[in-house]
Each structure stands twice: as C-alpha cells, then as structure tokens.
Specification:
CATH topology: NADH Oxidase
Oligomer: single chain
Largest sheet: 4 strands, antiparallel
CATH class: Alpha Beta
Mean pLDDT: 84
CATH architecture: 3-Layer(aba) Sandwich
Number of helices: 10
Helix content: 40-55%
Strand order of the largest sheet: 1-4-6-5
C-alpha cells in the first residue's frame, strides 16, 4: 500500500522549489532508480546529464522564458493545445482531462472567452501578456537547484523503425522510476517543455550541453525539494482529475467499455 500511495499521490511540481541543493546521495539514487527500468533487449538506450551550474541553469531558464513568450505571442501554443484547456470546474468534471484554468491570473481573465480568436491574441500581445508569462516561466526554471537532461542513443532512437518506439518506451519507464523516487525523497519534478515548442531555442540547449552527434536530447526536467507548504499555482498545468475507466478501458473487444470500475478505489479515496 505504501507504494500505491506514491503512485497515486505523485504530482508534477508547478511551483518553486526550496533553494537547497539536491544532495549527491539523492542524485545518485534518482539515476540508479531510472537505470533500473526495463528496456528492449536490455539496450538501456538512455543517457543523463545532471546540471547544477548556476550559469547554465540561468541560461536554460532564459531560453525557456523566451520560448514561452515566442510561442504565446505567435498563438501557436493556443492553436496546438486548445483542446486540452478547461475554463470551469463543470467542464473539467465532464471531460475529466486537460488543464483547469479556473484560477487565471488577473492579467489573463479578460481573455478567457477570446483566447483562441485573432482579436484576443492581438490584444494579449498589445498588453505584453506573453512577455509577462515568459518572465514568470524564466524565474520558475531559474529557481531550480537541479536540471536533468535525458538523451537517447541515435542508434536506438530511429523514429522510422520499431527500435524508435522501443527506445522511447524504455526512456518513459526510466523517467517513471525517477519520478516516483522524487516523491519518496520529498522532491518535485517538472518538464521544461517550452524550448521544445521552438526548435531553434531547443538547439541552443543542445549546443550548450555539448550533446554529441550520437545522442538525441529528448527532454529537460527541473528538480528540487518541495516546500512543506505549497499553494496551488494560478494555472494548474497538471490536474489530478482523471478519466473514468469506462472511458478508456474495454473488455474482450473495443466494442464493450469496462463496467463497474468507475468508483474510486485508490488509497485515501472516499
């Protein structure tokens, strides 16, 4: 049951971390947990780069903030992900997926109904909303004691071949192990995703980390110890709401949804 508590209570950390550096013992444990994951033919295609240097973290943070400003200002972020945005608890309760935007910062509230229209985008840009959000993102990443870059061997990561699937699946298992371990250590973790939305910005990180040609940088995560009391962020990028099993599980064939599993039986549920 203790393990199930970890599985069901882990969360993406959307807020700031404590300033304490991540201990070498905990860094080693995180990587050992990741490396214990299964992989096709025991290929272990993952590679990791641990980043504590403050100048490097500040640079990644600056790139992340600039990337957020860029994609928000161009409207590509909203166009790409609008199907996942929920603006009321009722909508979230109905769809049980996506991100809940019910506590938008005052700066964004006027755009709730026009977030995906040309006029709404133009007004946000005139008011420099993308720049404001980008700066908040920069500060969040800059406050991270540790970054971890995850890479795959290009010899295994060939998207046009089945080995590409195997290697990504293996990387996912490794990161799940690492993610669950952060819960046990009183830590948090979050995907630094915005640079990947702007390929030229992502290349800046690749170059800065001296990623060799035989490796592909797949993701960067920020990690740190979580404050004892954390407040819910203004935008809940990682809602705990989940679809009911009857919405995604089938019995025998895909014609018959699973019945009888929708009652929540997780540890601590009512």
């Amino acid at each position: 049951m203790e393990f199930l508590d970890v599985v069901f209570n882990r969360r993406t950390t959307n807020g700031p971390f404590r300033p304490d550096p991540v201990s070498p013992e905990h860094q080693q444990l995180l990587i050992r947990a990741a490396a214990a994951a299964p992989s096709q033919f025991n290929s272990q295609p993952w590679r990791f780069v641990l980043i504590e240097d403050r100048e490097t973290i500040e640079t990644v943070a600056r790139i992340s903030g600039e990337s957020m400003t860029e994609v928000m200002g161009a409207g590509t972020f909203f166009d790409r992900y609008k199907k996942y945005f929920r603006f009321s608890q009722k909508e979230m309760d109905t769809l049980r997926s996506g991100m809940l935007f019910d506590k938008l910062p005052a700066l964004l509230r006027p755009f709730t109904s026009r977030a995906f229209t040309p006029s709404g985008q133009a007004l946000m840009n005139r008011l420099r909303v993308p720049q404001t959000l980008g700066e908040e993102n920069r500060k969040l990443v800059a406050g991270s004691p540790l970054l971890i870059g995850v890479m795959l061997e290009r010899g295994e990561y060939r998207p046009e071949e089945l080995s590409g699937f195997y290697s990504v699946f293996s990387m996912g298992a490794a990161m799940e192990n690492l993610w669950l371990t952060t819960v046990e250590l009183g830590m948090g973790i979050q995907f630094v995703s915005f640079p990947m939305e702007a390929p030229h910005q992502w290349q800046r990180i690749v170059d800065m980390l001296h990623v060799p040609d035989e490796l592909e940088l797949m993701a960067v995560y920020r990690l740190g110890y979580v404050p004892e009391r954390t407040h819910r962020p203004a935008i809940d990028w990682s809602s705990r709401e989940r679809k009911r099993p009857s919405q995604y599980v089938f019995r025998e064939t895909c014609d018959t949804p699973q019945q009888g599993w929708d009652q929540d039986t997780r540890p601590g549920s009512a």
